[in-house]
Amino acid sequence: MIQPGGNNSVIRLEEVWKIYPMGHQEVHALAGVDMDFRRGDFWAIMGPSGSGKSTMLNILGCLDRVSKGRYYIEGKEISQFNDDDLSEIRLRYLGFIFQSFNLIPQLSVQRNIELPLYYLGWSPQQSAERAMELAGKVGLSERLDHKPTELSGGQMQRVAIARALSNDPSILLADEPTGNLDTATGEQILDLLCELNQAGKTIIMVTHEADIAKRAKKRLHMRDGRVEAIEG
Question: Which pTM does this prediction carry?
């Protein structure tokens, strides 16, 4: 077993359970999951509805807490962290890409990209420079002053990716990142994710589509809250 915090380990789950009370019964959304996600990997998490893949992503993203077990991120055991500490972990180590983009419609592309940096205490000038750099990286240099409603779906997802990269996270977590896009645009977003992975970003993506999962280096199949199979 690779020890948490080893040079190649960015996330480690040890016997992680997520249990929800349901009346007089318990639902085991995760049931004793052991996983090691290494630096520079590109994972696709797959499984039928109710398999635990969304719960897994929520746990990995510190959006939900483990019921039992241990969760390590960048060598830190965070299973018992309070809400403020988990917020700090999200800001320091994680970037999120959602199916519905989750952009703020009243803000420009630039302001949407800058948003995490505000919470990190960056100066307006530093934030603006970072936003311009990232807009260029995702091909939106000419759209910095536009609002999300003035963009196509693919452009909105590119803004979301730029925002996810603003704090230079170790890990990108993507929840069905092409789910609201047509096939051609979805392929462009996957190409961009592959480029980011080749540049060193660790990416963990939830998808229910086998063709999309094939773009990842490794595939984690879940069923009934457990790891059913690993490919790659």
Answer: 0.91
